[in-house]
């Protein structure tokens, strides 16, 4: 029963951290509502795109009296906003953001007008979307399953160390193996399909996703070395587990791969 409860607790902590990481990430959709001409309009603006062609921006806006303009600019360039009129199709207004190379980012916002009244979405500025290549479904699923399993085993191993139980060595080995497979093998494969590079973390760059994985591997390498040497490994395993949990609470895709438009233009 105690083992079951420990696995259940590890699962709850892992699911909670995964959901938090996803919902707080910069590529999670931006949603909300505004009022225009006495009507409440709900909206959702995507902040990542891996399709072919232009990225569609679509808002459900009933009523022919409402028109819309999509404004966009390349991210972090200081260039002027460019505008394109949105086209109505039934109860939706649609326009497209021009397709960008992998890791290219665009800032955008929408202005809706009804007579003399107008609202800008978002009201506090703009949202940023990042373009990427499409990752094969099989690669994506395997990567997600491996990384979730690694996070689950990491948390479970930390609980094992905290309670001074006797299955620490086996759990540490499994945690390390899953982290290597998910983060250091399938992670770079994902990165290559999405952005054309296998690794953009240290020492080649500062991609936070890659670096999070790297630091987790470093701490779990310490824990693995300790248990394989049959030395007291409680401190190493518990530290690696806590570090991994904290690392994976960092929002997903924060400080991720980003195209430098000045280099591209040069």
Walk me through this protein's architecture:
The protein is an alpha+beta fold and 266 residues long. The chain has two domains: 2-24 and 135-265, no CATH class; 37-131, Immunoglobulin-like (Sandwich), CATH 2.60.40.10. It is built from six helices and eleven strands. It has helices at residues 2-23, 137-162, 168-195, 208-228, 234-247, 261-265, and strands at residues 30-36, 39-45, 48-49, 55-60, 66-74, 82-85, 87-89, 92-97, 105-114, 117-121, 127-131. The strands form three sheets. Strands 3, 5, 6, 9, 10 and 11 form a six-stranded mixed beta sheet that branches. Strands 4-8-7 form a three-stranded antiparallel beta sheet, with no helix packed on it. A two-stranded antiparallel ribbon has the order 1-2. A hairpin with a 7-residue loop joins strand 5 (66-74) and strand 6 (82-85). Helix 2 (137-162) runs antiparallel to helix 3 (168-195) and helix 4 (208-228) runs antiparallel to helix 5 (234-247). The model has no long low-confidence stretch (mean pLDDT 90).
Please describe the structure with a list of short key phrases separated by commas or semicolons.
single chain; 266 residues; alpha+beta; Immunoglobulin-like; 2 domains; six-stranded mixed β-sheet; three-stranded antiparallel β-sheet; 6 helices; 44% helix; 24% strand
């Amino acid at each position: 029963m105690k083992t079951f409860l420990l696995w259940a607790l590890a699962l709850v902590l892992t699911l909670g951290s995964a959901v938090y990481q996803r919902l707080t990430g910069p590529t999670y959709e931006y949603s909300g509502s505004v009022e225009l001409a006495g009507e409440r309009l709900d909206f959702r603006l995507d902040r990542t795109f891996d399709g072919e062609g232009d990225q569609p921006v679509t808002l459900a806006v009933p009523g022919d009296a409402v028109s819309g303009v999509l404004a966009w600019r390349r991210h972090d360039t200081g260039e002027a906003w460019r505008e394109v009129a949105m086209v109505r199709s039934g109860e939706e207004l649609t326009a497209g953001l021009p397709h960008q190379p992998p890791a290219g980012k665009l800032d955008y916002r929408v202005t809706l007008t009804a007579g003399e009244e107008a609202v800008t979405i978002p009201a506090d500025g703009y949202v940023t979307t990042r373009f990427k290549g499409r990752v094969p479904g099989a690669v994506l699923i395997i990567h997600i399953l491996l990384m979730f399993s690694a996070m689950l085993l990491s948390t479970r191993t930390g609980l094992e160390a905290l309670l001074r139980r006797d299955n620490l060595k086996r759990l540490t080995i499994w945690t390390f193996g899953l982290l290597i497979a998910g983060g250091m093998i399938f992670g770079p494969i994902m990165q290559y399909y999405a952005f054309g590079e296998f690794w953009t973390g240290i020492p080649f760059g500062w991609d936070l996703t890659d670096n999070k994985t790297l630091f987790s591997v470093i701490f779990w390498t310490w824990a693995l070395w300790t248990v394989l040497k049959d030395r007291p490994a409680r401190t190493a395993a518990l530290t690696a587990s806590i570090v991994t949990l904290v690392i994976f609470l960092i929002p997903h895709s924060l400080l991720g791969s980003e195209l430098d438009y000045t280099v591209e233009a040069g």
